[in-house]
Amino acid sequence: MIVKSYAKINLVLYVLNKRPDGYHDIISIITKVDFFDLIEIKPSGILSVLTNKPELNNNSNLAFRSAKKFFEESRIKDAVKIDIQKHIPLEAGLGGGSSNAAYTLLALNKMYDYVLSFDKLLDISLQLGSDCPFFLYENANLVCSKGEQVYPLDFLLKPQPIIIVKPEMGVSTKLAYSNLILTKRNNINKMTLVDRLKKGGPLAIMHNDLESSVFKLYPAIEYLKRKIYEIAQNALLCGSGSSVFAFAENCERQQIISMLDDGYFFKTTTILNNEGRDLYGHYRS
Length: 285
Prior knowledge:
nucleotide-binding, Ribosomal Protein S5, domain 2, alpha+beta, IspE, Alpha-Beta Plaits
């Protein structure tokens, strides 16, 4: 089986407080974008993962851990080889590893005739990472608590054009959160955010609390955001970074690309709103 493992961007991210378990409570609206890794899963005598990134070819790989948990929970005595063609850059705030874990779960459960319930997949995904549950749902969703509360939007976002730019450095999610100075927030209304998005589109809600932390650690990323903003009149850090994205038409995208030095990664893409039901239809019917 071959599946696309999509990247994500946070259209808005508020960090509310630190929890006793060390995680943070958040309110975020996250959407998938049409940019993906390719995962191929084949029967095998031993469970293994192989990617085009040598540093990911080990048992700590989230897709490997996802498959291991799947076979443990399903009690199926079998194994697979997982080949991943990585395109989503690492430590970019695009959720590549979490996406690989979630799509591996979805693919395996389909391959083995939906032996696990969707609730069990959610439980496994949360053990792997707080971004993972989001990827078990299609398109765009409101995400709360530490990431396990996922609420699908009742409308589709337009497939607006986006440019994603990543500098050479990556950002550790743990470092971004640990350096954040929390601001007391008691006025973030989830449904108001959703309503603003529905009426005004992504530009009406774009905000990321982690920018204050990441920009202190890496001033070059703040500079990158500012330069992109000057062209597109919008820009936002992707999750915990280091990527920055902007909604931009073709002429603006070309201006942004032309200003980039060697070493920058960029990807032009769109919001994903038509992922289809191939991996999801069984759970939504």
